[in-house]
Amino acid sequence: MAHPRMQCAQRYEAGDAWLADCSAYPDLVRSAWDNEALAPIASGGRWLVAEARLATAYHVLIRIRDEHRGPILADPELDKLWWLVPPDSAEELADVRKVVVQPAGWCLNCPPTGWQVEGRMWITRPDGSGRLTNSAVLGAAFGPGGRRAEAS
Predict the structure, then answer these.
(1) Maximum distance among all Cα pairs of the chain, rounded to whole angstroms
(2) Angle 125-130-131 from CA coordinates, rounded to 5°
(3) Quick one: average pLDDT of 3-19?
(4) What does the alpha-carbon distance between residue 126 and residue 12 come to, in Å, rounded to a whole number?
(5) Which residue, 56, 92, 109, 110, is most buried by CB atoms nearer than 10 A?
(6) What pLDDT is stored for residue 117 in this prediction?
(7) pLDDT for the residue numbered 15
């Protein structure tokens, strides 16, 4: 019988393949995962990273229906949640108070989709489809008062 991690890896292979292919160096990503390490994957090619504090944004997860959720990565020790959003999301989320959209080229240290590494885990795992969280849906999920007031 296969080791439990191997079974998990097979189950999540499509998500892992997609995530590794988002890197300019997919072989290095897989090598990091084989060594049970986080793999740095630069944003910008296929997605940007919308970052928020875990403690203040966890409630947002339940406000976004499963079919509208893209990959979401959590690191409880750092108190961070990261949503993978479309590359054109920076402007849409610029006025959302509790979200910072990291610029293209910013590296997100990712575990494989099937298990956590160094306490970091996927809340919503990449599934290989390329589905991302729509920035308008994410902004709306932060609710009333979530947007910054317009400058007068």
Answers:
(1) 66
(2) 70
(3) 76
(4) 8
(5) 110
(6) 96
(7) 95
Which two three-digit tokens encode residue 136? 């308008």
| Count of beta carbons in the 10 Å neighbourhood of residue 147 | 15
Token digits of residue 15 = 């998500």
- CB-based contacts of 93, cutoff 8 Å, min separation 6: 50, 85, 99, 101, 135, 138, 139
Kindly write down the DSSP assignment for every residue of 92-142, as one continuous string. Answer: HHTTBTT-EEEPTTPEEEE--TTS-BTTBEEEE---SS-----HHHHHHHT
State the Cα–Cα distance between residues 25 and 46, nearest whole angstrom. Answer: 14
To the nearest whole percent, how much of the chain has pLDDT over 90?
Answer: 72
Which pLDDT tens digit goes with each residue over 28-86?
999 999 999 999 999 998 999 999 999 888 888 888 988 889 999 999 999 999 999 99
Please report, as a single letter, which amino acid is at residue 33: W
CA distance 22 to 16: 10
CA distances from 102 to 11, 12, 51, 61, 148 (A): 30, 26, 7, 19, 18
Q: Using an 8 Å Cβ cutoff, are 66 and 103 in contact?
A: no
